[in-house]
Amino acid sequence: MFGVDAAAQHLEEVLRLHFGGNEALGLPSSVPVAPALRCTILLTSLFFSVFLAVISLRISRMFLSGRMEVPTNSVEGRLAKATEALSVVPVVAILMIATRLRAIQLAGDARFGAPPIWAQLCMYGATFACFCRFLTDVFCFRNESEEMTLAATGIRHTATATLFLCSAAIVISTLIMEAKSADTEPLGAMMQCMLTLAVAYFLETGVREAFCRPRKLEDPSSSYGSFSPASHEEDVFALPAQISLQFPPMLCVLYVAIALRAVQLHLEPRLWANCAMYLTTIATIIQQARATTAFVQKEGKSSLLGDEAAGPALGRMESFDDKSKLFWSVTTSCIYVGTLLTLLSVAGMESKSSLETSTPAPLSTAMCCVMALTVVYFGSYLLLTAGSLLRRFMGNWAQWAQSTASGVQRSLAFAPMLCVMMIGVRMRAMQIGVRDPPYWAQCCMLVATTAVITQVTCSILTESQAVGGQIVDKDAVTKLFLLSVLGIRYVASAVLFFSVASLMVSLAWMQPVLEA
Predict the structure, then answer these.
(1) Alpha-carbon 314 to chain mean position
(2) CA 246, 212, 168: angle at the middle one, nearest 5?
(3) Where are the alpha helices (DSSP H) in 65-116?
(4) What share of the chain is helix, strand, coil (3-state, %, to 5)?
């Protein structure tokens, strides 16, 4: 047993020296970057670099050739389809950070709290599996030989199994972790809800992949197995479109951000806030169970997105019976009410010590940005749901609501992963013993958040031309305005990518403040 532990520690040291951390950058390493944060850097790099490549190729295609369609076997087409493999990345990354946070909570010191060595190795395994899943999707396309397709399929299945097993091990490590020198503090409501949502998310994703993957391999050009229900040209990303897969990542991020604030400042949420989190989690899981069941039942005649599986935001409400409408209305209302109460409770968290009566510390920049993006994120899907409800009664305005919501969805695709990186930067500051990240890193958080909100606003303005096609026929001033808004949207996208890169540099380079 001792030999196994020694070998694991040696392997972890090798990974630490070669995959992230200050040593790889040639910087002094008084406090090495934690494995969870190294994996977060790698996953964030994968996530944003792929979408940056797709956006760059799309812009180049439109300006150089003027073509609107995306050839299936082109580099752009393969990258766009392969983004399906990235849908689980935000949940995997926030799960790693949550495990690290649990270790800090039990150790009482961010400098020494660390998960078990086997859990840290599972983090590297899950990260490697995410890369393998993406690469096999990129290189496995229709014109390959049968042998290459079978080999890629085997690698893909192995990577998926590795990802799920490593994620399960990380969850287990969070549940069984114990304090070494004191009584083990029970898991708080935030961590309980986060772990529950993560497990349910992986289960639903696994079921959908198990049913859709064979059809996708038979016909890679079809929509089967793709997470994108839209067929119009601008929707080049395979984004998860059903509500049951949209809400959990952002809720997990929000709960971990609140838990980080609680651990750092020794706070705890009020009882009614805990109840709001439990309500939101239960309603979300019920929706996931209903969506998964409906998807499996319709598997033989539907793509990855069936109307019933999609929920009210994307399914045609006229195709629902009264019970389904009532179900989605009640559960979605519970999610929104619970999330709103959770957000309101952040500033009013209580101190764990009854002797402390001082006013709570102000919200950190990272916490403010996560809360702002959560509001915009859920607000956009409220608009999406409203557009679906109005589709039958409002004519062209319903078309505007639906197309606007689709544009907003693309703008918010980066929100969960962006929030994960912000939380990672703040956790790194805790690890090196400072309260807040560098000022310039906090500015990058605010700039990135503003960039996302700007893209959402531009999506609403540019999609307004869908109302009866009226704006298309207007004067040159209006057309110039729309082109300007579109330009601002692309500039905001570039600023977002630059800000994320700066946050990754901040996380890797951040060092303790030297005392005089």
Answers:
(1) 20
(2) 60
(3) 75-82, 89-107
(4) 70, 0, 25
- The DSSP call for residue 434 is -
This prediction's pTM? 0.84
Amino acid in position 59: I
Phi and psi torsions of 117, nearest 5°: -60, -35
64/274 Cα distance (integer angstroms): 54
d(CA 54, CA 138): 12
> Token match 């009020």: residue?
270
SS3 213: helix
Q: How do residues 282-332 score in pLDDT, each as one tens digit?
A: 999 999 998 888 888 765 444 333 344 445 555 554 556 677 778 888 999
Residue 125: which residues within 8 A CB-CB, separation 6 or more? 162, 166
On the CB side of 189, CA atoms within 13 Å amount to: 20
Q: Where are the alpha helices (DSSP H) in 391-475?
A: 396-411, 415-431, 439-462
Name the H helices within 177-270.
Answer: 189-218, 243-265
Give the tens place of pLDDT for each residue, 31-74. Answer: 788 999 999 999 999 999 988 888 888 777 766 665 555 554 56
What are the residue boundaries of the structural domains of the chain, listed by start?
438-508
212, 217, 230, 248 from 301: Cα distances, Å: 11, 17, 18, 27
CB atoms within 10 A of CB 4: 10
Token pair belonging to 223: 């929509």
CB contact set of 271 (below 8 Å; sequence gap of 6+): none
Positive or negative, the CA dihedral 401, 402, 406, 407 is negative
